[in-house]
Amino acid sequence: MDASQSNAPKSATLTIGDESWELPILNGTIGPDVIDIAKLYGQTGKFTYDPGFTSTASCESQITYIDGDEGVLLYRGYPIEQLAESDFLETCYLLLYGELPTAAQKADFDYRVTRHTMVHEQMSRFFHGFRRDAHPMSVLVASVGALSAFYHDSTDISDPQQRMIASIRMIAKIPTLAAMAYKYSIGQPFVYPKNDLDYASNFLRMCFSVPCEEYKVNPILSRAIDRIFILHADHEQNASTSTVRLAGSSGANPFACIAAGIACLWGPAHGGANEAALKMLGEIGSVDRIPEFINRAKDKNDPFRLMGFGHRVYKNYDPRAKIMQRTCHEVLGELGIKDDPLLDIAIELERIALQDEYFVERKLYPNIDFYSGITLRALGFPTSMFTVLFALARTVGWIGQWKEMIEDPSQRIGRPRQLYTGATQRDYVPIARRK
Ligand code: SDX
């Protein structure tokens, strides 16, 4: 029985001094109820205060559900463990349309995405303005934002057709732009997409093929990267998705909103953690130095944190991390990498941390970024491309959440308030009279 049928209270009573107000309680299909405070300021003249939004639901959504205590992740109700065995474009269809596609719908979706994978030829000139050692994330932010300069027929967000074509274009072109950012960083020529390859194979070929020889896609590795995309596709109202929603709430075009999401994802506390986690494993260097770094992570005076550990929502094992660990072993096995010292360090670090009371009492577990770096490095990507791959996969989540927000009749521009603790009003003193 869900809360709406039980005798659960329908409202919360707020009492301040000798005044009380009833605040409606809204029920979801699963997960915590919410207290509707939309009228709070009008009724009480007070704001709520929740920096970091630890207790704040910013929107209503039907796309992704996370149960952090149970380590559950559902895309449109389907468990990530089951979807990890589907293919990424099927997951894209599910996230965008809300239902799994029939065979005919899937074939049509694949066809539509495949035929939008090329970018305007003039886009390639943007890249040549960057230094070769520019971080690929800086190139990706710029090139995705620049898409709005080329596709004027998909920036009218009031037109459902244009919203869908913009969504398809974003999903289709992000691998091409990501591969171009990689090729540019290593001084190799761009590789055009091929329509007879599936999404993941096309991406691997655009990254790793060279004009001088045929490139044969390894199906095990292509399957692995496709699954990695599925794991990263969406994750409810995380920092970058909230950024996309806030940017979109002003009516900004979808390409600019996705560029804003990419910029937010770049931070080491968010999508940049996969790059930071691999660097951390390299800095630890050997299993016998793990205790030193565990102590540093626990030391309040040391800013060091175990990258790839902990999560705002998961207070249990991130279900994606388990699948990522399995994928890591699959890739290393396929490539014949028997003893990757960083993997040995990661496994031992996880074992020690999960026994240490500091991590246990704070419910800090490996998250999706803990094993992804080792896997992506084994696949041939430099650490600077790790967050680019995260952004590539999360683009469908961002555009799906953007579309849901635009199509929500109750949506308004997001405009939070604040607790002001600055100077009270005072008069200007001309400089000649200042002491
Ligand atoms: C992603 O939101 C999402 O869904 C994100 C994501 C997605 O798919 O979109 O899942 C992707 O961003 C995963 C997280 C990747 N980031 C990292 O791995 C960076 C390392 N992790 C931490 O920085 C941290 O755990 C966060 C940022 C992920 C979560 O931070 P919170 O929720 O604000 O937690 P907190 O900083 O308040 O920490 C609570 C306590 C603190 O100790 P006390 O002050 O209570 O004594 O736990 C400690 C923290 O010091 N802590 C850590 C730690 N993470 C938290 N201590 C050591 N190492 C860590 N990694």
UniProtKB/TrEMBL annotation:
GO terms for cellular component: cytoplasm. Pathway: Carbohydrate metabolism; tricarboxylic acid cycle; isocitrate from oxaloacetate: step 1/2. InterPro entries: Citrate_synth-like_lrg_a-sub, Citrate_synth-like_sm_a-sub, Citrate_synthase, Citrate_synthase_AS, Citrate_synthase_bac-typ, Citrate_synthase_sf, Citrate_synthase_typ-I. Pfam families: Citrate_synt. It catalyses: oxaloacetate + acetyl-CoA + H2O = citrate + CoA + H(+). The keyword Signal does not apply. GO terms for biological process: tricarboxylic acid cycle. CDD domains: EcCS_like. GO terms for molecular function: citrate synthase activity. The active site is at H311, D369. Signal peptide: none annotated. Keywords: Transferase, Tricarboxylic acid cycle. Belongs to the citrate synthase family. This is Citrate synthase. It comes from Ancylobacter rudongensis. The lineage of its organism: Bacteria, Pseudomonadati, Pseudomonadota, Alphaproteobacteria, Hyphomicrobiales.
